[in-house]
Amino acid sequence: MPSIEVRGDEALVRHAIAVVTKVNKPCRRSRTLVVFGCLVSVACLGGRTAGAAAQQAPTSQSSPAIPASPLPAPFPAAPRPPAQPRFVVVLDAAHGGSDTGARLGDPLLEKDIVLALSVRLRSMLTARGIAVITTREADGTLLPVNRAETANHALAAACISLHATATGSGVHLFTSSLPATPPASRFLPWQTAQSGSITQSLRLSSEINSAMAHAEVPVSLGRTSLQPLDSFACPAVAVEIAPLSAAGGSQPAALSDASYQARVVDALAGAIQQWREDWRQQP
Amino acid sequence: MIPRYQKIIFWILLGAAILMSIVLIRLRERAHDRLQTAADKMPLNAPPIAPAETVTMLVANDADGSLSPVDQQIALPEEPGARARILLQRLLAGYAEPHSTHHVAASTGVEEVFLMPLARQKEGQMAVVNLSGAFVEGHPSGIETETMTLLSIIGTLHTNLPQITQVRFVVDGQPRETLAGHADLTRVYLAEDKSVEVRR
Predict the structure, then answer these.
(1) ipTM of the complex
(2) Pick among B67, B100, B101, B141 to test the A interface (most A CBs inside 10 A)
């Protein structure tokens, strides 16, 4: 088989060559496909070289001493400065509607307290100039898949899933227990989309841990299997808030304590703001 | 008007039915007496008493989010599935006690544990733990407490039965999404996976 030198948009050309070489039967239909494939190849090469020539035109104008080559050089186009993506935070108030979550006391329900915390945190982040998307703003039933859709479509820089519990003390930070994989693929399995962001999620968790320690809120770190956390394709941490017990030498506080809630939310906002600074410095 | 011959047949059949009933009752009594006599004459064998073994329970602690190994002496049957069930029932019974460090509902907890060979691996078994519905309904809701329960079960199984490398959970024989609203019960847990843990 004759070798073909491939330049320019290699993927498109290879596809066209594949179409041409796949059909090798000497029939009328195959000949038509071969001609069509050749036309596609020529069109792709022509378009690519024309585009490259157009991009190279200013460079050649800025240096007139160098004579222009009759054939376009196959070097790549000049790199453009990458556009800075928007820093968006997704706040996921867990449960809602018929899914009440944990019963934290009469009549305190997990779904209500996490919604209140989400609204409070959103206001605080917005005041600091951070774009926030919430998965729910009211008491409605929302499936985990819908929450993950919201987060993944937003291309969020941080996803915080808010939970509350009556057991334990302080704040429990959980990241996904999925094994970390390099985010090489453009397509991720929905159920394990978080695996490509595990390293960043652990960094985000560490950031929140530092902020909580600064606010003198006891923290436990852990990894778990939780939906929709495992489906988030962004740095994601589940923050579970428990009442403060006197065991750690801290002042006991109930989940309904407004000052305790304010401490936790303030620490979270500070951690996310710090995460934004770190995120901007990331390559 | 009922013919005479039909009346005669009726009374004959009725008599036969009564007679057969009496015979059957008598035969049943004789069979019962025979079995009773045979049982009385059989020598009594003492049931095999399994010696108490030292087992290690991984006990969860809600206060500091830790799993601590605790040794206990219990008698276990020979069959691995039954051993696993007794182990877990003892573990969960401990959690239901008043001064437990990890409170769960007082119930049987584990109905059955099925051990299955892994399809694509030469070694190792998968344990399918059938939790009771009452236990799951009464379990406290929360990421940490649910994760601790699962880790405690998985760790206790793997520590005492090292051939168990994977664990799945069902509730009353049926798959279930979560334990009590948080921890995922649809996935297969790797018993040697240290990434699923809680630490201070």
Answers:
(1) 0.70
(2) B141
